[in-house]
């Protein structure tokens, strides 16, 4: 049997990404933190780990893989994530009835915020 242990995000500025993703997901870093790698884990042990790897890499659009983050209050979460340094991404092919918004973290790694409010299909 396989399970997802960690999703790895490559980054240039490990400290900035650590601050963003711990606040965005309410995760905590496993100590000690290395100079070039940190594993973030959920505070309640629910969900996969997210690891940050200080290994600059070429940004490819559209990304081959991204995170879908489910939100009970999509508008509030988007506003909170923007206050942490994320930005909304305009995609002209996004359907008008889409339940997701595309965002990117401070280094341009894209993710979606999906409306998972009660009654929505997530």
From TrEMBL:
The keyword Lyase applies. The keyword Cell division does not apply. GO terms for molecular function: lyase activity. PROSITE patterns: VOC. Keywords: Lyase. Residues 3-116 form the VOC domain. InterPro entries: Glyas_Bleomycin-R_OHBP_Dase, Glyoxalase_6, VOC_core. Pfam families: Glyoxalase_6 (PF18029). PANTHER family: CONSERVED PROTEIN (PTHR35908:SF1), HYPOTHETICAL FUSION PROTEIN (PTHR35908). This is Putative enzyme related to lactoylglutathione lyase. It comes from Agrococcus jenensis.
């Amino acid at each position: 049997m396989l399970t997802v242990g960690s999703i790895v995000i490559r980054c240039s500025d490990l400290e900035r990404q650590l601050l963003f993703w711990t606040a965005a997901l309410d995760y905590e870093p496993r100590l000690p933190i290395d100079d070039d790698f940190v594993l973030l884990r959920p505070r309640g042990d629910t969900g996969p780990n997210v690891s940050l790897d200080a290994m600059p890499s070429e940004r490819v659009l559209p990304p081959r893989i991204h995170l879908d983050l489910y939100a009970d209050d999509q508008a509030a979460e988007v506003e909170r994530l923007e206050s942490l340094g994320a930005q909304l991404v305009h995609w002209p092919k996004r359907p008008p009835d889409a339940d997701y918004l595309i965002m990117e973290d401070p280094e341009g790694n894209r993710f979606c915020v999906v409306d998972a409010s009660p009654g929505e299909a997530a």
